[in-house]
Design brief:
Elements lengths: L8 E2 L4 E2 L4 E2 L4 E2 L4 E2 L4 E2 L4 E2 L4 E2 L4 E4 L19 E2 L4 E2 L4 E3 L3 E2 L4 E2 L4 E2 L4 E2 L4 E2 L4 E2 L4 E2 L4 E2 L4 E2 L4 E2 L4 E2 L4 E2 L19 E2 L4 E2 L4 E2 L4 E2 L4 E2 L4 E2 L7 E4 L4 E5 L12
Parallel strand pairs: 1-4, 2-5, 3-6, 4-7, 5-8, 6-9, 7-10, 8-11, 9-12, 10-13, 11-14, 12-15, 13-16, 14-17, 15-18, 16-19, 17-20, 18-21, 19-22, 20-23, 22-25, 23-26, 24-27, 25-28, 26-29, 27-30, 29-31
Antiparallel strand pairs: 31-32
């Protein structure tokens, strides 16, 4: 049976700027503000009260080069943006990505396919969340962060500006790497200081922290602060910094 395309659906009180492109089957909730030059690809779903700034692109299909190692040609579901979220100027959300409620995806940030941002999370300017990433709720991913494919980030995590993660222990030169990709795992409340680097598959357990400029080459136990290159234990995380002792 031939598929019939549906016209975009738009909720009451939504305002759309000039020179926007809105594809078929797009659904926009109530009281949204869509800036100028925004592109909403086919099937994209947007909740109520969402603001999308100028030249943002939502629902973009990924490009797969002949040598791509983590990008697939598999069909992807439409992009989804939760109610109350803010999408910055020039931000890109790929098809197959999910943005929770009350999320801020700042100017120039990118969220790739098969990735998810939990409710209340912030992704700073120019940060990249690659494909197959799971980011929990209430996280703060600040400007210029690179979160590699297959990363797992729990609730209430903090990644300072310039954090870099990696998922390939073979530096792209051994066929074994295709079966061994592994992003970092950050459990609830884990934190990374400015410019920290986390090697493939390393695990920061609950409330663990690595200081600015650290190179994390081993797993960091729960509640410990590691620093240096390679990172080593400095001390326990102060009680005053534990999640349980933070104001609501």
């Amino acid at each position: 049976m031939e598929r019939r395309e549906r016209e975009p659906q738009m909720g009451e009180g939504t305002v759309v700027g000039q020179y926007c492109v809105i594809g078929s089957d797009v659904s926009i909730g109530r009281n949204c503000v869509i800036g100028h030059g925004v592109i909403l690809h086919e099937g994209t779903t947007i909740g109520d009260g969402v603001r999308i700034d100028d030249y943002a692109v939502l629902g973009k299909k990924p490009l797969r080069a002949t040598r791509s190692a983590t990008t697939s040609d598999d069909p992807l579901p439409p992009a989804r943006i939760g109610s109350g979220s803010l999408i910055g100027t020039g931000a890109v959300v790929y098809r197959g990505a999910t943005v929770g409620e009350q999320v801020l995806l700042a100017d120039g940030a990118t969220l790739r396919e098969n990735s998810r941002l939990g409710d209340g999370t912030i992704v700073g300017r120019g940060s990249y969340v690659e494909n197959h990433c799971q980011v929990g709720s209430r996280c703060k991913i600040q400007s210029g962060v690179y979160l590699c494919a297959f990363s797992q980030v729990g609730d209430d995590c903090f990644l300072a500006p310039g954090v870099v993660t990696s998922n390939d222990n073979y530096l792209g030169r051994d066929p074994k790497r295709l079966d061994a990709f592994a992003g970092p795992v950050l459990e609830r409340g884990a934190r990374l200081g400015a410019g920290a680097v986390v090697l493939p598959g390393r695990h920061l357990f609950e409330e663990a922290a690595a200081g600015a400029g650290s190179v994390v080459t081993h797993n960091v136990p729960s509640g410990e602060l590691w620093v240096g290159n390679p990172a080593r234990k400095l001390r326990q995380v102060p009680d005053s910094q534990l999640l349980e002792n933070q104001p609501d």
